[in-house]
Amino acid sequence: MKGRLEFFKEDIEPLDFILNKVIKKSHVEANDLLDAGFIKNVSNELEFNVHYKPEFEFIRYWNIVKEYGVAECKTTKNGAYIRVNEKTLHFLKQSGLKKTHKDILDEKALNEIEQRKAKVDLELAEKILQEYPRTK
Q1: 53-71, pLDDT tens digit by residue?
Q2: How far apart are CA 70 and CA 65, in angstroms?
Q3: What is the distance between the alpha carbons of residues 48 and 68, in angstroms, rounded to a whole number?
């Protein structure tokens, strides 16, 4: 999973919704997530005088789906959309993004343990060198 775009636990439900929806419908776009309540239509201004658009959140999901290659992600002059590809159904049958998210967390935990072990090994090696000076 190294180098993969990460996502949060809260993203699993909307992402799985997208993948389930593309199997039933020809494509999914931002309005589908708005209608389902996964994206809120917030009209207030955010920091730096930037206006929030529901499409921004959809594009974030679009990028995650594209990164994992589990559906076809396209853009046209009318906007972005996601459609089913040959991997979508198989991916969902394999527990979808819940398993992928768990794998990411497991890999992070493993990397953290390996880093701590390397640090302890280095400290132990330094201590051994200090306690047992070179002898001829």
Answers
A1: 778 889 989 998 898 888 9
A2: 6
A3: 32
- Strand pairing of 79-83 and 72-76? antiparallel
4-17 residues labelled b (16+ CB within 10 A) or e (exposed): eeebeeebbebbbb
Would you say 34 and 79 are in contact if contact means Cβ atoms under 8 Å apart?
Answer: no
Q: Answer for the pair 82, 73: CB distance below 8 angstroms, yes or no.
A: yes
Residue with tokens 């594209």: 66
pLDDT of 135 reads 58
Segments of 20-112 assigned E as strands: 72-76, 79-83
Q: What is the pLDDT of residues 6-19, one digit of tens each?
A: 777 788 888 888 98
Q: Which segments of the chain have a pLDDT < 70? A: 1-5, 42-52, 95-106, 109, 133-136
3-state secondary structure of 51: strand
For 119, half-sphere exposure in the C-beta direction (CA atoms, 13 angstrom radius) is 6
The beta strands (E) that lie in the chain are given as 72-76, 79-83
Provide the residue type at 106 as one letter: D
